[in-house]
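Ex. 9. Protein: Metalloregulator ArsR/SmtB family transcription factor.
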Amino acid sequence: MNAAQTVPETAAAECCTPLTRDVLSAEDAQRFAQLLKAVAEPTRLRLVSIIAAQENQEACVCDLTEPVGLGQPTVSHHLKILVDAGILHRDKRGVWAYYSIVPGALERAAAVLSPR
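Predicted C-alpha cells for Metalloregulator ArsR/SmtB family transcription factor:
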C-alpha cells in the first residue's frame, strides 16, 4: 500500500469489528493485520511514542533520528510504514517532512482488541 492508498480516516473509523464481538470480515482482518504489523516493531513503537509525547504531537524527521539511533533513510522508511497503515500523517514543509498522529488512530486500534 503506498501513500496514495492510505486508508481514509472515515474508512479507518468504520474499520474492524472488535475481535471479541463478531467474526472479522476478510477486508477488516487485512486492515487490522496491516495496522498491527506496523506497530509490531520496537523502533516504530518508539517513533509513535516520541511523536505523541511532543507538545504539539508533531515531529520533524530530522528530530527523530537521534532518539532512536538510526539514520534518516531508515527512520523515513519506518515512518512511511506508519503513514501507510493510517497511524501517522505526513506534512511536507520545504525540505523536511513533519509527522503527526492521525486523530483517533491509536484509539481505533485499541478498540478492536478490547472486549465490549
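Check your answer against this statement. The beta strands are 58-60, 88-93, 96-101.
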